[in-house]
Amino acid sequence: MIHHGNPSARLREVFSRIQAERMADVPLLNPALTVETVGFRLWQDSWLGVLITPWSMNLLALAGVTPFAPLGAHAVDSLTLPDGAVDFHGAFEPALGHYRQASLFSPMWQFAHQDAARATAEEVMNLLFPAAPAPDLSRRRLFGLRA
To answer: What percent of the chain has pLDDT over 90?
Structure first.
């Protein structure tokens, strides 16, 4: 399945339903956390970002241009990001199609509250997609003079 726009809202909907229907009685849920998406952006032909749930935090890649093919049980799909390659495993949800995930945390007991989980997810995205340094526009630099 191709996601033509940012899949954040769809991910929150699908995983909130999974929490309510499939995960409701699972004892590893952190009750201080809710489903949230952080930092989704289009990278090359995939949507990448972090999905926080009460049971795990994963870096996800969803198809933005070309659908993902299914991956075997132990197969890995490596994506090269600005800060290096990340190995993803295949996953499937009928409402999302085939996607890729890389586990960051599971279970989620080390997070006392949602703000802590969100800050960690934001830092993951900042590390994977570092901001470009601002150009040096000083007069000395522009005219080739040494500082």
So the answer is: 77
